Amino acid sequence: MQSTYEICLPLLLAHEGGYTNHPSDPGGPTNFGITIDDYRRYVKPDATAADVRGMKLSEAKNIYRSRYWDAQRCDELPPGVDYVIFDYGVNSGLGRSGKVLRRMLSLPANSSLDAVIAAADTSDHLSLVSSICDERLHFLQSLKTWPVFGVGWGCRVAEVRSAALAMAANTFKARVAMRG
């Protein structure tokens, strides 16, 4: 499949914004959506809040590509599904996004990524995108920080759903035309 990373990354970054250190956010100092823990893990082990504040966009992009997009093998997922899983993994963790994708595909929790990719490829991509977004919104609403961040999270999920459905619909139309 053709990578949609260059399309998805700006969409993700629009939601992540710049530097924050909100007292209700368990991620602590964060820039471009990269928390201090991730910055320490992937860039500078002894990073401070000032280091996170001064993070270069190129560093964030490298982290997103290798630690989120590539780690979830998004290049191999159908367009639309790739974006939903990428954004979900960034916002709520790779463990959660992977579990949800497996569950929405009716696969066992210990299914290999190869099995997940094969199932996603043969799935109804539009329904899969919607199901993942529905589950994601339900999960976010269950968090104790929903009253603080809920409006933004709800808008984010709605915008991700809309963009991902458009990506998935274009793929669907192209597949139907090829089968013609």
List the helices and strands and how they pair.
Layout: H1 5-16, E1 30-31, E2 34-35, H2 36-42, H3 49-53, H4 57-69, H5 81-92, H6 94-104, H7 113-122, H8 125-141, H9 146-179
Antiparallel strand pairs: 1-2
Helix pairs in contact: 5-6, 5-8, 5-9, 8-9
Explain this structure to me?
This protein has a single domain (5-179), classed as Chitosanase, subunit A, domain 1, CATH 1.20.141. The chain has a two-stranded antiparallel ribbon. The chain is an all-alpha fold and 180 residues long. It has helices at residues 5-16, 36-42, 49-53, 57-69, 81-92, 94-104, 113-122, 125-141, 146-179, and strands at residues 30-31, 34-35.
Count of discrete alpha- or pi-helical segments spanning 4 or more residues: 9
Helix content percent band: 55-70%
**Widest sheet: strand ordering:** 1-2
Low-confidence stretches: 174-180
What is the overall shape?
A: globular
CATH topology term: Chitosanase, subunit A, domain 1
Given the helix and strand composition, which structural class is it?
Answer: mainly alpha
C-alpha termini separation = 20 Å
Question: What is the CATH superfamily?
Answer: Chitosanase, subunit A, domain 1
Mean pLDDT metric:
92
Number of domains: 1
Strand content: under 5%
* H/E element order: HEEHHHHHHHH
* Number of E-type strands: 2
Short description:
With 180 residues, the protein is mainly alpha-helical. It contains nine helices and two strands.
